Amino acid sequence: MKKKSKQDMVIAIRPIDALYARLGDKVKENVSLAPYTSARIGGPADIFITADTSAELARIVKLLWKHEMPFALLGGGSNVLVSDKGVRGVVVMNRAKAVKFHIGDQPSVTVESGVVFSNLANRCASKGLSGLEWAATVPGTIGGAVYGNAGAFGGNMSGNLISTELLTENGKETLTVEQMGYVYRTSVLKRGELKAVVLSAELALKNSTKEEVTVKIQQFSAHRKATQPPGASMGSMFKNPNGDYAGKLIEAAGLKGARIGNAEISPLHGNFFINHANTKAEDIRALIQLAQKTVKEKLGVALELEVELIGEW
């Protein structure tokens, strides 16, 4: 019997074995993703890895790229709909949460991409730093906000971002806000023009008082509570068309309160789809298709998803 060469043995090593060898017990298999999404919906990931720092995130992503293993990145789990069948391949959970404030005449904050945006806005308020009040009710993380140009109440990421550190296949790169190609709810990253993972970002702030910033946050929070539904959802389902509002169009099409299974188009706001416990991703997707078809037929407007579909559909 011919003895295997070292080269044959290297080829025989599975990519997942390489992950275990480098990352040890950080690697989990067959993990349900529902608890990690704001909608509480989704099947299992074949492989699930948590990154606790931006350096660790970079190390994990480099390893996955090296072994050509496809992966999805999760932060706060908003703005995504994970399929009932789950994700074939790897899901990386970003828990990189370091924060560093730069105090002075032109204050700023440098944050790792796993920082929850609403928490950051409140931390700024506690230091009397303004500029991120609009983000106090925005679900998700800094990484997702940089990626999708998140915004609310007249503010958005393009108005605050100074620069972002990315991991590309060439290594770490820093892009200025101008280089991010921001337009409404998208960027060079979301459009797929640049293959990269957000590691951290520096955001511009302004000096103010704790009281002034807190009052503004309370006003925004009260407005959001009055106009957007509680419960498990993905956030805004569709992008607002030019000069109009997706929620208003869905309401005009007579779809507020429409249900499929335990999924419902909110009676309070038509652009929010609610999970009323044990909802299937397929039911949410069916409601998405119903909304798109009905609004197109009745009002002649094509609704474009803001939420991204992840997994095996």
Helix- and strand-based class? alpha+beta
Strand content: 25-35%
Range of helix content: 25-40%
Q: Give me the count of strands.
A: 18
Distance between the termini: 45 Å
Q: Going across the major beta sheet, what is the strand order? A: 6-7-13-11-12
Main sheet attributes: strand count, strand direction, barrel closure: 5 strands, antiparallel
**Overall outline:** globular
Q: What is the CATH C-level name of the largest domain?
A: Alpha Beta
Helices, by number, come to: 9
Order of helices and strands: HHEEHEEEEEHEHEEHEEEEHHEEEHE
| CATH topology tier name of the largest domain | Uridine Diphospho-n-acetylenolpyruvylglucosamine Reductase, domain 3
User: Number of domains in the coordinates?
Assistant: 3
Spatial extent as radius of gyration: 21 Å
Provide the CATH architecture of the largest domain. 2-Layer Sandwich
Mean pLDDT reading:
94
Contiguous uncertain segments of 5+ residues? none
